[in-house]
Amino acid sequence: MASAPPKLQRIVELFAGAPKDLRLEALLEYSRKLPPLPDHLDGHHSAMEQVHECQTPFFLSTEVDADCRVTTWFDCPPEAPTTRGFAGILAEGLNGATVEEVLAVPNDFYTQMGLAEAISSLRLRGMGAILGHLKRQVRQHAAAC
Q1: Structurally, how many domains does the chain consist of?
Q2: Global confidence as pTM
Q3: 12-32 pLDDT, tens digit each
């Protein structure tokens, strides 16, 4: 996956190289690493976009700074650890990447991680929707770059 930002590429390679039973555990570990929301978003879902394709209430917000670097924010309940884990992967893999790097991420990059063997196809579709919403927001912010 040559078009992914380096941090995301490393995560994809780690998952792809891990035994099947460890992939789910690694996904759960990322759910615990999801950064908390900043004050301006904490408790303010109206300032975030809901991803209705997800089974659980999932909200996201992206910011692009003056250097065209992306920051992502996610809010997902702890009772949805696989979805939170995916959000944790996106936060770690994409935060600090350029607009171009984020937009170049393959829409199905998570399939290269071997997640289809660990979680349901419904959850995988939700992951695709999350990335789609995120990219759309980044494209909207990119006009300022």
Answers
A1: 1
A2: 0.93
A3: 999 999 998 899 999 999 999
